[in-house]
Amino acid sequence: MDDGVFVKIDDYKSVLDIVAKVKSKIHDARSTIEQIKHLKHREDTELGAWGQKLDDIEGKMDDLDRTMFRPPT
User: Fold this and answer.
1) SS3 (DSSP) at 29
2) Whole-model pTM?
3) How far is CA 64 from its chain centroid?
4) What would you report as the CA-atom Rg of the chain, rounded to the nearest whole angstrom?
5) Predicted confidence (pLDDT) per residue in 16-51, tens digit
6) Which of 47, 27, 49 is nearest to 39 (CA)?
């Protein structure tokens, strides 16, 4: 006597369809994560550039303040 597992062909096809859909959703999720990583990297780069520009402006303002508003010693 064989103790094999029997599955209806309709059920088997349904399971295969579900597995294929899950794999597709996983692929979509990975793609979305990669897009988010790319956007985050661009955002970090932009924020770094903005921070550097603010540092430059702040340095120039400090120089201006020292030059214009403090008496020479």
Assistant:
1) helix
2) 0.62
3) 40
4) 31
5) 999 999 999 999 999 999 999 999 999 999 999 999
6) 47
